[in-house]
Amino acid sequence: MAKKMSLTLRNMLIPFVIAVVALVVPGILIKFGVIDAYTAQILTLGGVNAIMAISVNIVCGITGQLSLGQAGLMAVGAYACIIFSENAAIPLGFSIVLAGLLTALVGFLIGFPTLKLTGDYLAIVTLGFGEIIRVILVNVRGLTGGANGKRFTTDTAVLMSIYPELPWFLVIGVLIAVIILLQNFLRSSYGRAILAVREDEIAANSNGISVFKYKMIGFVIASFVAGIGGALYAPFIGFIKPELASYNRSIDYLIFVVLGGMGSTTGSVLAAFVLTALQEILRFLKDYRLLIYPLMLILVMLFRPQGLLGLKEVSFVRAWDKSVAFVQKKFGKKEAEK
Q1: For 168-186, how does the pLDDT look when each residue is reduced to its tens digit (9 = 90+)?
Q2: pTM of the prediction?
Q3: For the residues of 94-136, what is the DSSP string, one character each?
């Protein structure tokens, strides 16, 4: 019993330490100017994109549906965060959570009539809802600023623009929390039921699993995560426009998931950071850099159709064990030679 508890504590402690290091060390480097403000902005944007990649992965990789409207849900979260913070004078932390909950409600309203569809039909309908959200944002000018967009002007947003370490801690902290909560959810009975629906709807239904119910749960959770991503994007960038809900953005987030591996959370996060950085590194190519995404997708589809990680997840505990075993083996040989 004691050994089992010790093993559980170790399995929790290793990822916790790595998460703290990944959050704190870059934050300190940004604070003291070792990482400049421009690089910090790219890394933080990578964190926002990673949250959106997780949202798409929940729908496409974990639930097994194809949605092309996640950017629309992100826009709902972004605008809701600004409205809650500026119009209702709600603190930013509460505004982010409320924006996520509102987006989850919008996701429920969208999912209720559409999740009985599958495949291309669901993709077309969610694409249509994304465009509806964009058109509404353009035309409700009194609340959203119309086509000119809306600026985030609260004191918190100003502080985030002055101190680049603040958005880093906020965005990456939320990203880590989302990953932890999602991984724990997938190990629960609800998570296993969703995975069963993804693998075989007929078999899941024959075992008493309500296919529509668990599809809806997955879609609402994905909508909540998309809303959180949008709510973090708004104060970080400081200005948003209805184009945030465009079809092209939804495709960008889908590319992260396809490249990283449909169903792999760590794969989606890794692809989001790599492609966000790559887009900036190749900025000297101007518009030609937009050819990189299609070219990478073609290569992935030809040589690695399951994505970089497929359904696998990066395990820090396994990596630690292998590192320890390697060190012990290396030093063991040296001791034997002596």
Answers
A1: 999 999 999 999 999 889 8
A2: 0.90
A3: HHHHHHHHHHHHHHHHHHHHHTTS-HHHHHHHHHHHHHHHHHH
